[in-house]
Amino acid sequence: MYDLIQRPRRLRRTEGIRRLIRENYVHVDDLIYPIFITHGENIKSEISSLPGNYHWSVDRVLEEVAEIVELRIPGILLFGVPDAKDEIGSAAWAEDGIVQQACQKIKEKYPNLLVITDVCLCQYTDHGHCGRLTKEGEVDNDSTLELLAKTALSHVLAGADMVAPSDMMDGRIAAIRKKLDKNGFSHIPILSYAVKYASNFYGPFRNAAHSAPKQGDRRSYQMDPPNIQEALREARLDVKEGADILMVKPGLAYLDVVKALADNFDLPIACYNVSGEYAMVKAAAEKGWIDEKNVIMEMMVSMKRAGADIIITYFAKEVAKLLQS
């Protein structure tokens, strides 16, 4: 027999011991649930690429929000899918826009629910890019900043508690911060998509948001997947410009980046468990290839272990139910 002084298995023998020494936990307070607001009336339409998630018209969105509140999920992230698009995405900052209407309706009924709004133009432009285009078809960074700032302000005027710019334009955090402060909203935090990669995991979202580019791609403004030093540089700039929370998107394939941000910055770190990551689990579960519930929780704890304080996920309702059970 071997003379084993250290036996790590002693601390794995029972569920009680494992719970006692568990290092990372997922809590319902970590979760943010994305919701897609669409035009029209009496709409609850399941998104084919995101089974279990729906397009909601403004008049029915409180049905979804009521469940979120009941599950004690602290916040939601709103995305708009408008009926009218144009070259500059003017519906994004319209006073009567669908996100603006949804904000007002939700905050009237549930004033304590955290309402975060995605600030971008891709769903609202007829070309599908995240900013104003030049005559040559390139996204014009600097002329886009004012449009993003106007959009953020319109969301806050409608009741949003926090804005989340996802466009990846240079200087957009500073532009939004300046616009909000100038209009008396210095108390409104900015959750920055600080590190957003040009990823192949976004396909189901683009189907859901009707936001795929009509031409070209987004690699000139979203980050190249092999880069991590660039991620630190982007995050550092956003901190300097006034970001309050830093986010990494996607999450699961970029956990090393989540850890790098957690190790280098003293702000809360958010992680977006994106649509492609969600859809892969759903597809594999439908085939019977994985234990869906356990895989979901393993994914969630991996993000917490990497250093995420906040997880934005289409699984939020399922995770909340699993935690309750």
TrEMBL record:
Gene3D superfamilies: Aldolase class I. Pathway: Porphyrin-containing compound metabolism; protoporphyrin-IX biosynthesis; coproporphyrinogen-III from 5-aminolevulinate: step 1/4. The active site is at 196 (schiff-base intermediate with substrate), 249 (schiff-base intermediate with substrate). One of its GO terms (biological process) is protoporphyrinogen IX biosynthetic process. One of its GO terms (molecular function) is zinc ion binding. 5-aminolevulinate 2 binds at residues 275, 314. Keywords: Heme biosynthesis, Lyase, Magnesium, Metal-binding, Porphyrin biosynthesis, Zinc. Belongs to the ALAD family. This is Delta-aminolevulinic acid dehydratase. It comes from Anoxybacter fermentans.
